[in-house]
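Lab meeting, item 3. Inverse folding demo.
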């Protein structure tokens, strides 16, 4: 619920240079914003004390083994109150808070009975990527099994459009989708693996036949998938994706933590929160949904999925570099 006057935090001066708006600067330099964020992440029912100021917040982060660092120097309260604003120190704290949120989600999933989805991971980052790989491997095996069992596999191929139908536990495809292996964050940039994850949990809302799942993905193919994912998050998950399409497509190093934070948001919604429209393909041992926090119990398909997306033209991929040459901002 970002106030309208703060949703666009920048203004341009007469030289077309961007600056933070004064109200945004004052909010960042106060301790209220970060302390409130930390308290929301941890939850009011936790045994951990709620931070009252930035000194307490930085101490709590350190106790968790998360040290906010700005160019190898530990961030201090003086850095956060420095005028003019020392933005690199604030970004370090924001990164630390995103890390806490992701760790809390991974821990919650392990606690609620879905630890098998995250087993074998050495860190919370690896756990999130492992989750994506487990589900993509599941769908890959189902697809291959369906094709092997299909009598049409021995017949001559026919030029038909991709089709998705369910029969028992098989997923027969006329055109075999490609489920990529995810080894690092950049492997998520095509949208294939993420679309497969969402399809696994919400097959009635996101169909694999509606996304591009090819071995060789163009920029236009990837943008199409990422747009589909953004639309799903905006319509169904309270807009939990705060990354721009170019952020996900290019996945620069400085935004990879943001991407992992988004991945943890998906994990939270699909494994912990579980609105009624989340109906996983497998009957995996999942958690009992927690309080819905105002989520509507509407299990019908949102309106955006009742009409096809317009494909991104080839000219879109050609203009990607020109249109999005500006450095992404967190």
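The presenter then showed the designed sequence:
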């Amino acid at each position: 619920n970002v106030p309208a006057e703060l949703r666009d935090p920048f203004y341009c001066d007469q030289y077309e240079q961007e600056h933070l708006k004064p109200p945004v600067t004052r909010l960042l330099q106060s301790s209220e914003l970060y302390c409130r964020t930390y308290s929301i992440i941890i939850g009011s029912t936790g045994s951990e004390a709620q931070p009252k100021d930035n000194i307490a917040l930085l101490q709590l982060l350190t106790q968790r083994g998360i040290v906010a660092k700005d160019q190898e120097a530990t961030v201090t309260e003086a850095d956060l109150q420095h005028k003019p604003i020392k933005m690199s120190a604030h970004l370090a704290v924001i990164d630390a808070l995103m890390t806490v949120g992701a760790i809390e989600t991974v821990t919650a999933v392990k606690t609620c009975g879905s630890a098998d989805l995250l087993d074998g991971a050495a860190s919370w980052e690896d756990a999130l990527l492992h989750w994506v790989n487990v589900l993509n491997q599941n769908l890959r095996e189902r697809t291959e099994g369906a094709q092997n069992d299909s009598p049409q596999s021995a017949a001559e191929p026919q030029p038909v459009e991709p089709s998705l139908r369910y029969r028992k536990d098989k997923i027969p495809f006329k055109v075999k989708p490609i489920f990529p292996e995810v080894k690092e964050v950049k492997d998520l940039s095509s949208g294939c693996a993420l679309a497969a994850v969402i399809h696994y949990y919400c097959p009635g809302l996101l169909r694999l036949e509606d996304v591009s799942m090819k071995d060789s993905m163009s920029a236009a193919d990837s943008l199409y998938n990422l747009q589909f994912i953004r639309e799903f998050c905006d319509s169904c998950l309270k807009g939990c994706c705060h990354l721009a399409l170019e952020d996900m497509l290019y996945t620069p190093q400085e935004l990879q933590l943001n991407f992992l934070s988004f991945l943890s948001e998906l994990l939270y919604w699909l494994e912990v929160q579980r609105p009624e429209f989340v109906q996983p393909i497998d009957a995996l041992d999942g958690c009992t949904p927690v309080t819905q926090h105002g989520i509507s119990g509407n299990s019908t398909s949102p309106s955006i999925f009742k009409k096809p997306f317009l494909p991104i033209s080839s000219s879109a991929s050609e203009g990607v570099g020109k249109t999005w040459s500006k450095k992404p901002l967190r």
